[in-house]
Design brief:
alpha+beta, 3-stranded antiparallel sheet
Length: about 170
């Protein structure tokens, strides 16, 4: 964690960071039974009381990585390339950059277990105050921390409106 964030942060358990974790991504080691850290960094109550830039949401769904643009099948030439398991190609729209697209594996296209994870209020308020505070988050079903881009906020269960990615 960078020193600017640390100045306005505390821990979920109210204890000082464990030895060796003072500037780590979490202030405590991972509990091997659950895969979760024993404590997490959160913004201080004073910092959270300044207001939020996003709604306070306490649940998110693991949807995995997904293409932004339409996929196409591979050409015969692309199929003859290195055998890394690519099954589709996502062409990026022309924007003047040198990136033309991305190859996808079936595992990537199938990623995301669909499980909903709920978090405590202080964590949710930290997300709402500073959307870039965390770079990864925990999936209770997968039992591990994954990039925030693999999750969407659960805004309105049953309506299909849980499409906003965490950290955006």
């Amino acid at each position: 964690m960078d020193t600017n964030k640390l100045q306005n942060s505390t821990t979920t358990d109210g204890k000082p960071a464990r030895s060796g974790f003072e500037t780590g991504s979490a202030p405590a080691p991972v509990d091997p039974r659950t895969g979760q850290h024993l404590a997490y960094w959160i913004l201080s109550e004073d910092e959270r009381s300044k207001g939020f830039v996003r709604p306070v949401r306490e649940a998110y769904r693991h949807v995995g990585v997904r293409p932004k643009y339409p996929l196409r099948g591979l050409t015969e030439e692309e199929k003859r390339g290195p055998d890394v398991g690519y099954v589709a190609f996502e062409a990026y729209p022309p924007d003047g950059s040198s990136s033309i697209g991305r190859f996808w594996t079936q595992a990537q296209l199938n990623s995301g277990c669909g499980c909903v994870t709920r978090m405590g209020r202080a964590l949710a308020e930290t997300w709402a105050r500073d959307i870039s505070y965390y770079g990864s988050t925990f999936c209770v079903n997968c039992g591990k921390h994954l990039p925030v881009e693999e999750f969407v906020w659960l805004d309105d269960p049953g309506t299909g409106k849980d499409t906003e990615r965490l950290g955006t």
